[in-house]
Structures are given as C-alpha cells and as structure tokens.
Amino acid sequence: MRTGRRTAALLAVGALTAGLLLTAPQPASAANLITNPGFETAGADDMPHCWEKSGWGDNDFSFTTTSDAHSGDRAMRVELTRRAGGDRKALITESAACAPVVSPGGQYDLGLWYKSTTPDASLTLFRHDETAGWQYWTDLKTLDMQPAAWTEATVRTPEVPAGTDRISWGVSVYGTGAVTTDDYTMEQVTEPVPEPGCTGTARECADGAWEVLPTKNPVRSMHSVVLHNGKVLLIAGSGNSEELFEAGTFTSAVYDPEEGTYAIVPTPDDMFCAGHVQLRDGRVLVMSGNKGYPSADGTVGYQGYRDSYVFDPETETYTRTDDMNDGHWYPSATILGNGDVISFGGLREDSTGSVTADLWSDAEQRWLPMNRVHQTWSYWGLYPSMILMQDGRLFYSGSHVFGNNIPGTGSAIYDYGANTVTEVPGLRKKDERDQSASVLLPPAQDQKVLTLGGGNIDSNPDANRLTDIIDLKEANPSYVAGPPIPQGTVDHGDGPVPQTGDQGKMYLSAVLLPDGKVLETGGGLHNRADPVFETSVFDPVSETFDPVAVDPEARGYHSSAFLLPDGRVMTTGDNPGNGSWNHSVSVYSPPYLFQGERPVITSLIDSEWTYGDTQRITVDRPIAKAELIRPAAVTHSSDPNQRFVDLPLSVGEDGGTTVDLNVTSNPDLAPPGWYMLFAVDAAGVPSVAEWVHLQGPAALTAKDAGAHVHDFAGAPEGKVTGPGKKRAAQPVPPTVSGCDRHYGSANVCVPTAFPAEVAATAAARCAWLERNDYGTLEVNGRDDPLRLDGNRDGVACGKGDVRRG
After folding, report:
1. Quick one: which H or E segment has residue 232?
2. Average pLDDT in the 93-108 region?
3. How far is 725 from 146, CA to CA, in rounded Å?
4. CA 430 from centre of chain
5. Most confident listed range (558-562, 701-705, 796-800)
6. What is the number of H-type helices and E-type strands within the chain?
7. Per-residue CA distances from 395 to 204, 377, 414, 424 (Å)
8. CB of 447 closer than 8 Å to CB of 456
9. Is 113 in contact with 32 (CB distance < 8 Å)?
10. CA-to-CA distance for 677 and 663, rounded, in angstroms?
11. Which residues lie closer than 8 Å to 703 by C-beta, 6 or more apart?
12. Rounded distance, CA 768 to CA 651, Å?
C-alpha cells in the first residue's frame, strides 16, 4: 500500500522560496540514473516508458501526459479534484528494467522541475529489499506551491539501507490541485568519506570514555529535563525521603553543563515521581507527584495529587496551573502534534489506580474538564510508555513501572479520535517488562520502536536481556525478537562478578545519539538492588549491540541518562533499597568525540522553523546528514517523547558548505517545540547542536492539517476494545512498589519478594539485607510477614533473629 492518510493534527506548510531551492553538484562525470527522465518515450497504460501510476485512498484523480514541458515535448501532470484520503503519484516503474540500481550505504542527489497548484505535494521514495521486495522508504521534501513558473527541487537521499538494490521515486499529491513534473535527475554522491583519525587513546576511539564529575548533584533528583537554553532541570521533590517530605523540603536544581554549576530552585510541591514534558514554547509542564507516603503498617500506599505546574527556563520558577481531573502519581506524559499533552495512569489521591485520561490544551493553556476528554476507563499502569505515531495515534510499547503489564498482549495502539484500543502482539515476557526502556528508533520517519530489558517488582526474578523491535509501518505490526542486551558485571553486595545465564537488567536508560545510534546504560538485576555495570550502543541499521566503556557508578532505580547539546551523555542518580542516594554525576563521551575535528554549523539563517519549510545552514565542510533531536524529559527509564527526526539535505554547488534542510510537514513526526539540530559528517562525527524552534501558525486547527500521513499500521488484527464501563478507579495493592512496609521507613525498600537465590529463612534474608547495607530495621506494628524478627524485640535481623533462623 503506497502512502498516506490525513491526520487530525496541527500543520503549517511553510512557504518554500525559490531562492532556497538549490541545485545539486553536477560533476562532469555524473550520469543520470533515470530512464526516460523527461517522459519523451511512450509506454503502456497511457504512461511514459518506465513510469507507472500509483497511489491509494478515496480521491478523484487523473494522470495526463502534457505538452506543457520544461524541456522537450512532454511532462507529467497528476491532479486530484476531490480528496477524502490517500494520494496519487507517478512513480518510476518498480522493475529491474526501469528502477535505478543503488549501492547500500550510498547517497544519491535527486532532482526534478515542477509546477504545483497545491501545497500538498512531496517527493516520496520506495526501495526494493532483496528479501522483502518493494516497500515505502521515506518522504524527502515538501514542494512549494508554484502554479506558474517552472521550479527546480533537489534533495539528497539518506544512506541507502542494507539489503536495498534499487529505488523508485516520484511526487505524491495528497491535496486537491495539480503537480506537473519534468526532467528528473538522479546522481550518485561522490564526496569522499573523511579519513579516520583518532584524537584519544585507541580504547577511547573504540569505546568512548566516562568521566565522574568533581561536583556532585546537590539534590536527590530522579527527573531530568534538558531545557532549550542547554541547561538541565533536575527535579527531586522530596527525593523519596519521608523525612524531607514531613519537613516540606522539596527541591529542584538547574545544572549548567558549560559552567559545571548548579542553581537550587524553590519547589512548591512534592514532585517526586511526577510526569513532565516540554511544551511548544519550551516551558516544562510538570504534572502530579506525591501527595503522601505509604502508612507505616503498609495498609495505605503512595498517593498522587492533582496539582500541576509549569517551569519557565527563563525565570527558573514554577507557576501553578489548574488541577488535573485525577491524581496521577507515576503518570505518562506525551505531547501531541497540535501541542496538546495527554496523560494516563498512575495512582490517585486514595492510592488506587487512575483510569482517567487527562488532556492539557495548548490553545487554552489548561487541563480540560473531563467531559471534554475521551475516556476508555482503562488502567494503563504506572509510567506507561505512550509513543506518538506518525498518524496521531499512540503506541503503548509495553514498558511501564511496577509489576505486571496491562491485560492482553502487553502492547497496544490507542486511537484517541476513535477512542479504541487495539492489542498488538509479539512482546515477549510481557509481565517482565517492568522498568524496561522503549525508544522510537532513529529516524522517526522509520516508525520502529525498540524495547529493552525489564523485570517484575512483584515476583522479583532476575531481570532479562530481551529486546523486541516493532515496525509500525507494517499493516499488521507485531514485535519481533531483537538481539539480547550484552552482559556485564553485577554487584550482589560483595563486589562485581560476571553476569551468567539469562541475567539482564531493569532500570536501564536508552539515549538517542546524533550519529543515529542508541546508547543503553545502567540498570540493576533486581528490585532496587544488585547494580549491573554494562553500557553498549545499538545500531538500528544492523540491529546489533556494540559494548563500549562502562559507567563506573551504579545507576539503578531513580537514575537517568540524557543527551547534552555538545553530544555527550550525562547520567545521575541511584536509589538502592536501603534508602541511600548516589549524588555523583557521570558524563560519557562517545567514540565519535575522539574521531578528529567536528563539523561546525557556521550559520543558521533562522532558528524559528515551520512545518514543510526548507531551512538553510552553512557548515565548515561537507556533511552526510542532519537531524532534529527532541531534548530529554526522562524518569524511571521512561521518555516517550524522545525522538530523532531526519532532515533530508539539498546540497549547494559551493563544495557542500551551503546546505538546505527539508523539514517534515507532519507535526506528529516532530511535535512542536524546541529541538537540538545536529550536522553529522560521513564518519558519523556530529557538530555541537544549535537550538531551533519548530511549530506551525497558532491560527491553524487540527482540521486544517495537511501533512502527508501514511497508512501505516492500517490493518492491525488484534482485539479491539472501545470505552469500557465508567468507573472511578482500578484497585491497586499498597505493595505496588514491591516494598514490604512492615520494616524500616518509607524510603527503605525491603523487597516483598527476595531474589530466587535467597532462601526463605531469616538467616538468608538478613544476610542479603546486610550485604546490601540496610542497617538497623525497625518493625512497624506487630506483623512480621517475612519472619525477620524472631525474638519479637521490634528490630528486624538482630542477633537473636538470625540465631533463630
């Protein structure tokens, strides 16, 4: 099926100007790879030789060979006179005789001349996979509306994926109007790859290097948000400390990576385990948090309040918004293509599970009342990973926090407009993906999601090594098994030892890198215990892991990792079950920072970008690609808004230092807000990021959207459910966090289920607690379910308790 469905999402098609459309380099030896590029030779089915009719959907259309040509006697006109959905396009015939041969890893400059009476047209590519056959590849460029004058458009392809032997391309028309095209060109890029160089040690060049910074993080932060001024908001609230909660001591800090300094920020509420996301204007929406800790006897669990705040990076202050409709301790937070934010899950004010969806209106700058928000009355759990798809639906990846997954397959597609949930199959061990990480793989246009690791706090098995990958471009998408996470060492309390068997990790972090790969790091083998020391880089092209240098600090529960604008990765936090906190901060320099000089973006004409724009930059030397990376807003292994959006290049004739970047017309691929712009050379070395602000005119509403939205995941066969019966909440046990509150304080987590290798005796359990530095544990009340206070003196694991076994 070829291509798109119009989505209800904010769009602005920016005005391309003829002055920004560049002509690709024309070396004397270049050969045009297109057969019949000017439609001069007739073929079958009223089409020119080596061209075919293509498209889909509900529309009225015509294909016409016209004498209104740019050169020669013929051109091709594609017109839509009515459109309810889909597109039409004249494509290079998908055959060995007509489709140009390409080399995996190569790039190609594409060009054509056109006239257009519609703003809804884009240059679209398909590729022939040697195993899977012909399939959609990507959209490269939105064409400006040019009704009278012939205009040239050029663009460079991304690197050709492995297994691809031919490509086909043409112009998709997805709005009413006509596009006439002529004189197609396709030439292989011959720019040399930079000579490999190493500016560090051989090990640094291969594996990168970690540095533990001399200044510690002053707050117990478990939330990290990279701001559009390059600083980092670190939110602690009470920092999982009942003593700080009772004292009303709630903290945040703003870290300045350039100065290495921290500024403490007055924090009005306990934002411990809140949700957060950057809004269109760069402010940070922080929702819910901790209204109360569990009771000493464990009969009452954590409570989530309805409070909500906006943090302003300019003033570094919080401002109260209106309240949410429900409490959401551990909520999801996903920004939509129109700038709204949707939130699910978490715990309510009475410790039960929230079945209420809350929606922040970008237009009204407030949480909408419940009667204006679609409800399925579904319980999605805690921190459910809800990833925005290219058509505005949400993909629940199966990553969540605390205990079992949702009923059914463990992953699903939620269509807010239709208010339906469709199960998606294939996720392995769905009830052991607690504290797994999920990420939309680079580039976002490929619509592939990777889920890594996880465990189950309730049963506390060894965390797993599983990775699963889903391609949401498929009509009926299903997870397939990916490569296992590499093993490292694990510290059970007696020093690191190699992992064995199927041991993996939970609490891990996954970070998108500007070279198009994913760094995974940190984690633990069990619930708030047994840190795992392992770091690797996942390559989405080869679907392989490459172990690299390892963070020397433990990074388990309440840790986070995130990309800085200079291309490094920062990690902070760790909160073991004994209640301690790791205030050290580590910074990782990937191997690309040891590969010689970095490209430099020497000028950026405009930092305010609009959907469908072409934006010009200059660089100090040729680059292979450029992308936008949405800055992190991460906690508990979860950042569903993290994404890497490819910017196809149009390269000038000045040696490749003037480059036009073609911005997607689809705000569901790149929701409005601030992004880091990286330019990357052919060796994978990135520039330092420039900040750009992407959005559409505020006057546009969702119904005005005109993005080229493809019919991906259009025929899922899983069970479909609509709204259930209205209800107040989901029953949730007070032990949802996997902690037995009969012992110690609220922030000390004696596990409800010890690791399998720990015998069910007081001696074995107490030995494990001692190895993990628990110290003295008071017994809360008279109950002793784990039999740790045999002599009933009110202190668990005393000498008399151990002797009694």
Report:
1. strand 232-237
2. 96
3. 52
4. 20
5. 558-562
6. 4, 57
7. 37, 17, 6, 9
8. no
9. no
10. 12
11. 8
12. 61
d(CA 531, CA 490): 6
Segment (H or E) for 121:
strand 121-129
Q: Answer yes or no: are the C-beta atoms of 608 and 803 closer than 8 Å.
A: no
Structure tokens, 414? 């939620």
Q: What is the pLDDT of residues 141-194, one digit of tens each?
A: 999 999 999 999 999 999 999 999 999 999 999 999 999 999 999 999 987 777
d(CA 691, CA 305): 34
Q: What is the C-alpha separation between 467 and 776, in angstroms, rounded?
A: 39
DSSP state letter for 371 = G
Domains and CATH numbers, the chain: 51-189 (2.60.120.260), 203-593 (2.130.10.80), 601-695 (2.60.40.10), 735-804 (no CATH)
Phi, psi values for residue 223, rounded to 5°: -125, 130
Tokens of 119: 């703003």
- One DSSP character per residue, 586-647 reads EEEE-GGGGSSPPP-EEEES-SEE-TT-EEEEEESS--SEEEEEPPPEEBTTB-TT--EEE-
The per-residue pLDDT for range 168-180, each reduced to its tens digit, is: 999 999 999 999 9
Q: What is the pLDDT of residues 290-318, one digit of tens each?
A: 999 998 777 899 999 999 999 999 999 99
Half-sphere exposure of 263 (CA within 13 A, CB side): 12
Token match 């301690």: residue?
A: 580
Is there a contact between 733 and 353 (Cβ–Cβ < 8 Å)? no
CA distance 121 to 179: 8
Pairing of strands 658-662, 649-651: antiparallel
Evaluate whether 777 touches 788 at the Cβ level (below 8 Å).
yes
Residue 85 and residue 76 in contact, taking contact as beta carbons nearer than 8 Å: no
Segment holding 246, helix H or strand E: helix 242-247
pLDDT of residue 518: 98
CA distances from 596 to 439, 521, 626, 681, 683 (A): 29, 25, 19, 11, 10
Mean pLDDT across the chain: 93
The helix (run of H) or strand (run of E) holding residue 659 is strand 658-662
Spatial contact of 102 and 67, defined as CB atoms under 8 Å apart: no
Question: Measured between alpha carbons, how far is 760 from 770 in angstroms, rounded to an integer?
Answer: 15
- Tell me which long-range contacts 549-552 makes (C-beta under 8 A, separation of at least 24): 549/203, 549/204, 549/207, 549/208, 549/209, 549/210, 549/588, 550/210, 550/488, 550/521, 551/210, 551/521, 551/522, 551/586, 551/588, 552/210, 552/212, 552/586
- In b/e form, how buried is each residue of 690-707, taking b as 16+ CB within 10 angstroms? bbbbbbbeeebebeebbb
Residues in the chain: 805
In terms of C-beta density within 10 A (0-12 exposed, 13-18 middle, 19 or more buried), how is residue 590 classed? buried
For residue 710, what are the β-bridge partners?
A: 4
Residue type, 719: K
Give the integer Cα–Cα distance in Å for 2 and 54: 7
Give the pLDDT confidence score for residue 803 in this predicted structure.
Answer: 65
Tell me the two tokens of residue 165: 């032997």
246: Cβ–Cβ under 8 A, 6 or more apart, which residues? none
- CB 159 within 8 Å of CB 107: yes
pTM above 0.90, yes or no: yes
CA distance 467 to 454: 9
Cis peptide before 622 (omega within 30 of 0): no
Q: Are 529 and 577 in contact (CB under 8 A)?
A: yes
Q: How many whole angstroms separate alpha carbon 701 and alpha carbon 589?
A: 42
What are the tens digits of pLDDT across the range 436-487? 999 999 999 999 999 999 999 999 999 999 999 999 999 999 999 999 999 9
Q: Residue 251: what are its φ and ψ, rounded to 5°?
A: -130, 155
* pLDDT of the residue at 303: 97
Question: What's the CA gap between 425 and 89, in Å, rounded?
Answer: 33
**Distance from the Cα of residue 719 to its chain's centroid:** 26
